[in-house]
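Record format v2
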Amino acid sequence: MSLNWKAGGLLLGLVFFLAVLLVKPIGVSTQFVILDGIIADAVNPDLVTRAAEGTTSTNAYLAKSDGKYAKAVASPLNYSFVFVLAMALGGLLSAKLRGGIPQADRSVPALWRANFGGCQVKRYAAAFLGGFIVLYGARLAGGCTSGHMMSGMMQTALSGYIFAAGAFAAAIPVSLLLFKKEA
Amino acid sequence: MTTILLAIVTGAAFGAVLDRVGASNPDYIGKMLNLTNLNLAKAILLAIGTGSVLMFGGQMAGLVDVGHMSVKTAYAGVFIGGLMLGAGWALAGYCPGTGVVAAASGRKDALFFIAGGLLGAAAYMVTYPAWKASGLLDNIAGGKVTLGIVPGAKYEGLMALPGDLLGIILGLGFIALAFALPERLVPQKASPQPAE
């Protein structure tokens, strides 16, 4: 079963609070870069260099901030990367316990079906394109819905407000344009 | 080792709650963003408010380490990137965290979202020097700033107000907004009626 907004919002707020109480604010999108780095470093071991004076990379983005990302690529068993892996585990268990996602919604969600039909290829292409834009944008912004909008606004960070303004300024018109029919 | 254990516990809790609140369901995201069902928006506002009140309240009571705060830099690219993320979020119905949860819970389209995301992140890694050179990543309004001055934090305040108190007030504001927001903003389309 899904939670109503009061119980769900309260629990979600508690998780964000616990994260900052115990370790640090929640963020996700950086880990897409770290996974990219791990894959690229496996293909081309020269990407990340581990030297006595510090870990760095031939890629300027991985090397920025004293090789912060390069270090995470070199040792992926760190808090932030494991956090995202654990999110998958938590999501899987929670979905299983409430009976799983209906078969019909697993490839083409109902709202999409109502507006664009049941073609899987079309939906997968849109999800792929959406993913590209989302992660490119998140990296340009330096965070995503979790890190900027939720964690950021919760901490009264100016950047969180700027991000949320941009995200909703685009998301609402695009959604109104795409999804005119209700499911 | 403790940090890894904490990562597993907090990460799993976050993933489970995202699933239960419906944030990893693209139908709920779509209905929120086309303004036909704002229950998820209400949950998000309540979550931000709850987190804020607990964190700043805990700081004032001396129970929460101010040093755990991590404020991101403000620059023009934050807005541009936000616009991009918003457009993709509306199209796909997923953001980075909810995409991971959705894929794990059995949604196949979310796997394509993640694949696109990995490519998008890689594209940014390659094009980063051009953004850096453009000046759009340069600090604005002091960069890593909070709206008020949070006592004991390493961040500057945008305004000369007590940041912890302001955080609690804004948090309560988010909670009030969650309750005030109607369930939908776009009027329900009239079901077809026979002409009179």
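Chain A has two domains: 1-100, 104-183.
The radius of gyration of chain A is 19 Å.
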